[in-house]
Amino acid sequence: MSQREQWSSKLGFILAAAGSAIGLGAIWKFPYIAGQNGGGAFFLIFIIFTLILGLPLLLAEFIIGRSAQDNAVDSYRKIAPGTQWHWVGIIGMVTSFILLSFYSVIGGWIVVYLFKAIVGDLNGLNSDQYAVVFGETISDPMISVFVQLLFILMTIFVVSKGVQKGIERASAIMMPALFILFIILVIRAVTLDGAMEGIKFLLQPDFTKVKSQTILEAMGQSFFTLSVGVSVMVTYSSYLPKTQSLPRSAFSIVGMNIFIVLLAGLAIFPAVFSFNLEPGAGPVLLFNVLPTVFSQIPFGMFFFIAFLVLFLFAALTSAFSMLEIIVSVISKGEPTQRKKWAWIIGLAIFVCGIPSALSFGILGEITLFGKTIFDLADFAVSNVLLPIGSLLIAIFVPVKMKKSTLYEELKRGSSFKKGLFEIWYFLIRFVAPLLILAVMLDVLGVW
Ligand code: PFF
């Protein structure tokens, strides 16, 4: 195998891993799932899961990747030769495949909204009209599939060029810019008439709304927003030099992620209540609410376009990681094979994702267990495959790696205290497997 590529700088890795984590999950998915699950209580449970499950798992994936320095499947082979553990990586590839097949649908929605905003189709509309225009657009089969394809083509293009250099550099500007725009948006949203209702909805937990399903959704959401359970973070940290502090990277990614989730919630819910919209509107929530908030800001359309560009960038950096994990396994790190496989796999994902795109229009009537094809794909990934992947990783690390090796990895390049290590180890070894199992069994009605 030719020499493995590495990140061009320490910052490159953090930016790429944060780029994978921060995406549609925090900005688009969190508000709508929180909206469907009663708001505050969901938010609180999500934060708790992020801290006691997501963060330890993120560290676990970093350790696996950096110590094995190989792709998502061979890393497990290297650490546990002659066992079946590499299936964790294979499950991750399948998860990534399904994930990108519906993620690209929403990526396409951003593209189409961006186009509409630029050509002026959205000028002078009121909040109800935005929803109508948007609904008509995404139910059009040609448009929804075409923009999904565009989103996937952008992803293929970048991944086929190799470890996402250049993109690293761009995200050093794009991510902070996204934060700043979000802050402007939040300031406007929380000063709308009737905003308090929305703030309370997000920040005041009402535990009467919590069902087993809510807890599962919150857990799935915490894995989804951190990109854990798929071995994407194994892949990314495998390109990492040994000198980088893993805990510091993990803490900053989790911190940024929680912050952006909070901003997204504070931008959306005050506006939902102020304009009498429906918090449980589902996947279209963000797209119906945001233009209304922007229209209340001077030069709103300009800011809205800037926001969509940054949002698209955030979604793409997540999509890169999904395609990257599959391509890096199949091309075995051979630069000559990368391009071919990025195209083959990317286009296969597109074809498999078409039914998800159409489930907001002509295939909308087709449901299984009361869910459309899109919802079913999302449910399978967020609430089944991510928890299973995470559960297996939580079992793998303490069982197949020596405790002293784990401590060495976490200590490298940082002053990680033994006490903190013990807490992490306890969370990974006992809390994570038991809690994930308990939540999954609870939903199945086992107790
Ligand atoms: N973390 C991404 C987001 O929140 O949009 C989604 C994601 C990317 C999940 C990559 C899993 C993954 F492997």
Automatic annotation (TrEMBL):
It is a multi-pass membrane protein. Keywords: Membrane, Symport, Transmembrane, Transmembrane helix, Transport. SUPFAM superfamilies: SNF-like (SSF161070). It is found in: Membrane. InterPro entries: Na/ntran_symport, SNS_sf, YocR/YhdH-like. Its main location: membrane. Belongs to the sodium:neurotransmitter symporter (SNF) (TC 2.A.22) family. NCBIfam families: Na_transp. This is Transporter.
